[in-house]
Amino acid sequence: MNKLYIEGNKKLNGNVLISGSKNAALPILFMTILTKEKIELSNIPKLTDIRVAIKLLRSLGAKIVNTNKILYIDPSAINIYCPPYNLIKEIRASIWMLSPLLIRFGKAKIFFPGGCKIGLRPIDLHLKGLIALGAKIVQKDNYIIASILKPLKGKYIHLEKISVGATITIMSAATLAEGLTIIANAAQEPEIIDVAKFLNTLGAHITGAGSNKIYITGVLKLNGGYHKIIPDRIETGTFLIAAAISKGCIICNDTEPKHLENILQKLSETGAHIQTGKDWIKLNMQEKIPKAVNISTTPYPGFPTDMQPQFALLNSISKGESIIIENIFENRFAYVKELIKMGAKIKIKNNYIICKGVQKLFSKTLFSTDLRSSATLILAGCIAKGITVVNNIHHFKRGYESFPKKLNKLGANIKYI
Ligand code: UD1
């Protein structure tokens, strides 16, 4: 069943429970390689990317019990430093195995990571960071082979480009290095704070995570511990868009409004009525047609690239003309041709799109190309006129837990065919 059948013309209303963050859970899972003691992780989302990460850890020798969104991980028996390439290829996050394997074994060999084809996605900053701390790295036959002869030494590292991935790689390597490491021009995403919080629970000394300078004082050993994964801000944003495009009212529960400030600002510019509480966000479009908004993606606390396709859908059925500029990835407009098939008026120019709102989208057979665009096309199907079929649905399963089921509870009619 690799297709979705979606009945259109739906208004989406009601409550939805937000799952744990994919992009926090994945690095945290791989950081468990840094300790030999038991770890308990809760609020783990049920996603295919997470399943691949669990398989990867098990393939190294970790013992994992998986019950109802809680993982009990015993990493003491991990005894392999070269994870199977067929699993590494499946997810981008597998790059985060490099640093903990290197620290644990003094050597690591991993295949080049996979993930969404949304741009070139080099890993040079990860590797340069590890080299700056004292690692030796060779690239051969699509493998990265890293080694250290003596313990890594803390350094001042200025990232030439803000990178979530490289910040996490360097931060994790520095936890067990000798002395102080400073990461300047660091990424500030909530997921970075969550990884730092997890590592500190295990005994690491990290301060400044969430700002552009992170200080890590190396310790000799990490212990075990318990950590709860933060809510997924991109899943939250996607459900808020579902309310806005269908002129409905959705309350996202178990979320963290502080992580969505920029997204909420843009949504309120569309005319949506937004209320927030400690762990919930309510968006009520009050039957109104949204106003189109201009977007420019930048690293956190700027507007997230992972919400760019969903806002393009919103703009395509909103009043007025808008521009969306994509500054992070080179190839993140693949979904636009599918929206055009549905009647959207969008022009792609280099790294930006110009969108003129239309009154209605019309159902078509669609092909999703990556994670966020697949969620966008599914939402488009919910509001289009007629029956939409979305192909390649393995993409949404990587990052949206029970997406059709959650949407159906809000009033959609989506079936697997
Ligand atoms: C992570 C997220 C992804 C999100 C992105 C930006 C995960 C699994 N993925 O991806 O959902 O869209 O952050 O918020 O958490 N770059 C380099 N060299 C490097 C690393 C990155 O040039 O070594 C470039 C990238 O090509 C991109 C920019 O830096 O243009 C930002 O990438 P980065 O923040 O590292 O994204 P990811 O960690 O891949």
From TrEMBL:
It holds the Pfam family EPSP_synthase. Residues 7-407 form the Enolpyruvate transferase domain. UDP-N-acetyl-alpha-D-glucosamine binds at R92, R121, P122, I123, D124, L125, D306, I328. The modification 2-(S-cysteinyl)pyruvic acid O-phosphothioketal is found at C116. One of its GO terms (molecular function) is UDP-N-acetylglucosamine 1-carboxyvinyltransferase activity. It is found in: Cytoplasm. Phosphoenolpyruvate binds at K22, N23. GO terms for cellular component: cytoplasm. PANTHER family: UDP-N-ACETYLGLUCOSAMINE 1-CARBOXYVINYLTRANSFERASE. InterPro entries: Enolpyruvate_Tfrase_dom (IPR001986), Enolpyruvate_Tfrase_sf (IPR036968), MurA_subfamily (IPR050068), RNA3'P_cycl/enolpyr_Trfase_a/b (IPR013792), UDP_GlcNAc_COvinyl_MurA (IPR005750). It is an enzyme of class 2 (transferase). Belongs to the EPSP synthase family. MurA subfamily. The active site is at C116. One of its GO terms (biological process) is UDP-N-acetylgalactosamine biosynthetic process. Cell wall formation. Adds enolpyruvyl to UDP-N-acetylglucosamine. Pathway: Cell wall biogenesis; peptidoglycan biosynthesis. Keywords: Cell cycle, Cell division, Cell shape, Cell wall biogenesis/degradation, Cytoplasm, Peptidoglycan synthesis, Pyruvate, Transferase. CDD domains: UdpNAET. It catalyses: phosphoenolpyruvate + UDP-N-acetyl-alpha-D-glucosamine = UDP-N-acetyl-3-O-(1-carboxyvinyl)-alpha-D-glucosamine + phosphate. Its EC number is 2.5.1.7. This is UDP-N-acetylglucosamine 1-carboxyvinyltransferase. It comes from Buchnera aphidicola.
